[in-house]
UniProtKB/TrEMBL annotation:
Keywords: Signal. It comes from the Bacteria. This is DUF4142 domain-containing protein. Residues 1-20 form the signal peptide.
Length: 228
């Protein structure tokens, strides 16, 4: 009977929206969002070399993100990423701006498809099936439980520290010139994007940067375009 409850416990947390793969999907979503933005920058360039510069940034980011996308477990997103990489590679070899833009527009479509696939991941299922559950069941109960509790405590500490960051950011928004506040927040947002692209980032650092990015994104939305 104890084994039954242990398996049930693992099943709940292995497939719960608040645990495991869902967090990996958040990381993948962040990285693909960055790829999408770099692709859009490449599209508006009027110089082929500059278009290639941003295309390479998008391509490098996507290559670095394959592990996070794989961990997310969304086959639809993974398939879109494979196509996206090919279009971006071909765009770097384009000999004209017009040809580059055709390929970049296709790459942008695949970025959007990947983001949509991750957003609707729960509706079409996951590549994680019984094998994932079996792997977890084979681990010692005490080790699995402690790992979960330790991870929860770390995230709680990070959430507490980020409450102070949010308060400080709100103060900047309310007291500093809009353009300066926007530049400050944008710099933090972009730094978080760059950190999340690193392949060997610890789980706590990934969580910290993801949540910092989310808080900063809301601040940037509040600031708008700083029109006078």
């Amino acid at each position: 009977m104890k084994l039954f409850y242990f398996i049930l416990f693992l099943f709940m947390f292995s497939f719960s929206p608040s645990f495991g793969a869902i967090q990996d999907c958040d990381y993948a979503n962040s990285n693909i969002g960055y790829v999408k933005n770099q692709t859009k920058k490449a599209l508006i360039m009027k110089d082929l070399q500059m278009a290639r510069f941003y295309t390479f940034k998008a391509l490098n980011a996507l290559e670095k993100s394959k592990k996070q996308i794989e961990d997310c477990g969304c086959e639809y997103a993974s398939d879109s990423v494979i196509e996206n990489i090919e279009y971006l590679k071909n765009a770097t070899r384009a000999t004209s701006l017009a040809g580059s833009r055709i390929l970049l527009n296709k790459a942008l479509e695949y970025s959007k498809e990947s983001l949509d696939a991750i957003a609707n991941h729960d509706d079409h299922g996951s590549i994680y099936g019984s094998n994932n559950l079996v792997m977890n069941v084979e681990s010692p109960q005490e080790e699995t439980t402690m790992a979960f509790l330790d991870n929860t405590k770390i995230r709680q500490k990070i959430d507490t520290s980020l409450m102070k960051y949010k308060t400080s950011l709100d103060k900047v928004i309310n007291t500093v010139d809009c353009a300066e506040a926007r530049a400050f927040a944008q710099n933090i947002y972009e730094n978080c994007e760059q950190e999340l692209l690193k392949p060997h980032l610890s789980e706590s650092k990934k969580y910290y940067n993801l949540k910092t990015k989310e808080i900063t994104a809301k601040a940037l939305e509040r600031l708008g375009k700083c029109e006078r």
